[in-house]
Amino acid sequence: MGLGVPTLPFTFVAHLLAVAAIVMIHPVLMLIGLIIMGGEAIITYKALPMKKEIKKLIHLILHGIALILGIVGICAAFKNHNESGIANMYSLHAWLGIGVISLYGIQWIFGFVMFFYPGGSESPRSQSIPWHVLFGLIVYVLALGTASLGFLEKLTFLESSAGVAKYGSEELLVNFTAIVTREYCSLAPLVLERQCL
Predict the structure, then answer these.
(1) What is the mean pLDDT of each run of 10 residues along the chain (197 residues)?
(2) Which domains does the chain have, with CATH numbers?
(3) Quick check: pTM over 0.90?
């Protein structure tokens, strides 16, 4: 027993909502994952007043979550491009994004094997800590640069294809989000520098 309502319009609406969600989920997942969770992982390792083993576990888990969100975000971008007929890997943002997520994954695996997984000797661990910190900050700064290119790419796309006016509300929102992202990203290196003094 049904209501006698045609399902075709609902199918189109559901599909459009799903495509809109896929389009919007890439920047959200990348921002929450690599920028916010990655920054929190860096900050919490140095700033939490806990035992070293607990801080290492929190650091590892937050970076793992960031990595998973980043991978899902990149998959969402590829899915959106494939469904919309947009070429993949056509911009500097895309190339750097693949590089950043690859480096992030290498850094996470290295950190897991070297510092978390039991069995490593103390000498290689202590010698690799400065390199792990330096490489981690470089990857984090690269993630910020890639996010900035993503904001710029989105603005360029909105202005050229969607007819968004200069100084319109959409443009101000994207620019404001980019500035807040940049300011947030400056906190992690400051916390590290503060703790090293």
Answers:
(1) 59 53 78 93 88 92 96 91 89 95 96 82 86 93 94 85 77 87 83 63
(2) 11-196 (1.20.120.1770)
(3) no
